[in-house]
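Practice record 12: protein with nicotinamide-adenine-dinucleotide.
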Amino acid sequence: MVAEERDAAKARGGRFGLATLSIGEDPAASAYLRRIDRTAEQLRVPHRSVRLAGSARAEEVLAAIRELNGDSSVSGILVLRPLPEHLDEADVFAALDPIKDVEAVHPENAGLLALGTPRYIPSTAAAVYHLLDSWLAEVGEEPSAFYRSSRIVVVGRSNNVGKPAVSLAYAKQSAVTSVDEWASVSGRLGSHTRRGDVLIVAAGVPGLIRAEHVRAGAVVVDVGINLVEGEDGRPGIVGDVAWDEVVGRARAITPVPGGVGPVTDVWLIRNTILAARKGMAT
Ligand code: NAD
């Protein structure tokens, strides 16, 4: 599907390419960057990686963004998170050309998404619903009937994952519950998550969701990607859901690694191709 969209974009004379901007060294961001590189290469979409030191001043970061905004070979820009603490995320995201802001972090795009009229659907939230839709097709359930009769509980409320996942749940006309770390602090996490027919978990806490947090027969989507040291001392990746406990209780569950991550990477590239078209229209 993405290859066809790429070829169609090329045929229309569109120029597309992804630029990533990373500031400082974060192991999870570096791992994400490697995945993006691989996926962009596989899908034959150019990827330009710009790296700044963790000590980069705000002016240097904004200048790098202006340069990418003006680069006609770049149709999509991704700023990797987390940013170093001295930088204001809102200022950095607001500097992006909204047409190139394929992760919808610019206030204009975040606002459009919240209003239910998205210019771009951020890749991780898009991947979550893509997996849900694919599963529904597989089990032969009618999507709108399923979503309209379901409660979707989203654990984690970040601007880049949790909130977009909630906005998309609204668009599906589901009942929606959104919780953050205060649900855990107040001891109420389980009472919220057990109400979910669908449980989407994006907290960044390894094994946060145990069997006791999951309604029997729920559909569980694990977004978490956590770097941990395995028993053998080697680094590994685990999700936010305790797979061994939850797998027998859920109707369906996405694995980590695998699951949401690879679909997210493809969606980012897809949005980059889509952005070339939107850029031509302006
Ligand atoms: P974030 O740190 O920006 O936000 C985390 C959210 O979870 C916050 O709202 C916080 O309040 C909440 N939270 C933290 N601890 C909690 C707890 N104990 N109980 C309930 N809520 C809690 O993180 P993020 O960028 O949203 O990422 C979340 C996770 O998803 C991370 O593991 C990240 O690596 C992963 N991620 C995966 C993909 C992918 O492609 N699969 C993409 C982006 C992020």
